[in-house]
Amino acid sequence: MKSHEIDYKIKGHDIQFVEIELDPNETVIAEAGAMLYMKEGIDFTAKMGDGSEPEKGLFGKLLSAASRKITGESIFITHFTHRGVGKSHVAFAAPYPGTILPVDLAAMGGTIIVQRDAFLCAALGTKISMHFNQNLGSGFLGGEGFILQKLQGDGKVFIHAGGTVIEHELNGETLRVDTGCVVGFQEGINFSVQRAGNLKSMVFGGEGLFLATLQGTGKVWLQSMPISKLINQLSPGSSNSRKEDNGGLLKSLLES
User: Fold this and answer.
1) I need a labelling partner for 221 at 20 to 30 A (CA). Which of 89, 107, 174, 214 fits?
2) Contact indicator for 138, 174 with CB cutoff of 8 Å
3) Looking at the domain assignment, is residue 240 inside a domain?
4) CATH code, domain carrying 142
5) Which domain holds residue 157?
6) Please, what's the b/e burial string for 146-167 (b: 16 or more CB within 10 A of its CB; e: otherwise)?
């Protein structure tokens, strides 16, 4: 199915949202709960399936819903269609601060692979499916990247990254990064997880036990602040929290 052609504007700086402009009968699909606002004429329906294969029967829709559940996403995808006249708009925002990256799938060879929480919205006709990383160590050792999402089509998709997006163009090269910082990459890039140096570096280096390794030719998108790292830094028991607790204790002793 050929994807709908949609226009868009990305607004904001540190906390962004994307506003999609729809002509009559044009549709954009989005993660459940991602809608920020919609203008007159927009109708929305929650469906089991991305709508890329209208002939898909009930079994196919259930299979698609089950795969989304495994990736940690809602089993429903919301379809927003302009039923009025002229042009209308619907906007989407991610659940945490960061950057929205527009990707033209046609220019990417028709397929990109993204982390399971990266997809935000896309033109109708985009196929969203589960992608298992062939390297089992990516999931069991690195904690990230075992179950990914594959986005296929010839239209525009919008993915979300925590913090700032960093884009790399690999040409047969190897890039090693924190496992949680990988947002997505073109099909053909080999993604695996490897040990972070020797035992001393793994234990005392502060970079975690494993690093993600991306190798091949194509684009790679990284995020400077994955939500998992932000939660870890803010959670009780983290090094920052302990410093704050110690500072509060010292202040109390000085004031007593």
Assistant:
1) 89
2) no
3) no
4) 3.60.160.10
5) 7-225
6) bbbbebbbbbbbbbbbbbebee
Residue 144 lies in a domain: yes
Instruction: Using CB atoms within 10 Å of the CB of residue 1, give its burial: 0 to 12 exposed, 13 to 18 middle, 19+ buried.
Output: middle
Q: How many separate domains does the chain show? A: 1
- Taking the model in full, what pTM does it have? 0.79
Residue pair 133/60 in contact by the 8 Å Cβ criterion: no
Among candidate residues 116, 132, 127, 122, the one with its CA nearest the CA of residue 90: 122
Q: Are 178 and 115 in contact (CB under 8 A)?
A: no
**How far is 46 from 31, CA to CA, in rounded Å?**
10
Question: The tokens of 187 are what?
Answer: 């099909």
pLDDT higher than 80, residue 57 = no
Q: How remote is the C-alpha of 10 from its chain's centroid?
A: 16
**What is each CA distance from 164 to 52, 97, 100, 107, 129, in whole angstroms?**
31, 10, 9, 22, 26
Q: How far apart are alpha carbons 71 and 149 in whole angstroms?
A: 8
CA distances from residue 115 to 52, 67, 148, 182 in whole angstroms, order as listed: 20, 14, 5, 7
Distance CA 215, CA 187 (A): 11
Instruction: Give the mean model confidence (pLDDT) for residues 184-213.
Output: 71
Percentage with pLDDT > 70 across the chain: 70
Does the structure show a pLDDT above 60 at 107? yes
Q: How far is CA 96 from CA 42, 83, 185, 222, in A?
A: 25, 30, 21, 16
The residue type found at 72 is: G
Question: Helix, strand, coil proportions of the chain in percent (round to 5)?
Answer: 20, 45, 35
Residue 56 lies in a domain: yes
Tell me the C-alpha to C-alpha distance, in Å, between residue 113 and each of 180, 191, 201.
Answer: 15, 10, 30
